[in-house]
Design goal:
- It is a single chain.
- With 112 residues, the chain is mainly beta.
- The chain has one helix and six strands, in the order βββββαβ.
- The protein has a domain of 66 residues.
- A four-stranded mixed β-sheet has the order 3-4-5-6, with no helix packed on it. Strands 1-2 form a two-stranded antiparallel ribbon.
- It starts with 17 loop residues before the first strand and ends in an 8-residue tail after the last strand.
């Protein structure tokens, strides 16, 4: 791990109007999070199929019978496993529901 990948002292911004949802599955510092407006009327929670990888956070947003799922991916080499990019490890093997929003930095570097 190089120095620019050290997130052990990273802090997120807090605001009195928002609640933070962070991954709860990892002992490592999470690199993904979601901010939800505190008086937002829909039900928001971490999905039961959310990854155990701290670089992936899947959140359900539900209102009545409607549900959308956000998939937030920090696409960098994995700190937990073999050093493969998260997108390659996770997304191609994950079933995405029809109403989904994929969020990511994608960390895609062009060779040119």
């Amino acid at each position: 791990m190089n120095l620019s990948d050290n997130y052990s002292t990273a802090k997120s911004v807090s605001h009195s109007s928002f609640t933070q949802i962070l991954s709860v599955h990892s002992i490592l510092q999470s690199r993904t999070l979601v901010y939800i407006l505190k008086d937002y009327k829909s039900v928001v929670n971490i999905a039961t199929n959310s990854s155990t990888n701290s670089d992936v956070l899947i959140v359900n947003i539900s209102e009545l019978e409607d549900k959308i799922q956000t998939i937030n991916i920090y696409n960098k080499k994995d700190l937990d496993l073999e050093g493969e990019y998260i997108l390659n490890q996770f997304l191609y093997n994950f079933h995405i529901i029809s109403k989904s929003l994929l969020l990511s930095n994608f960390n895609s570097h062009h060779s040119m």
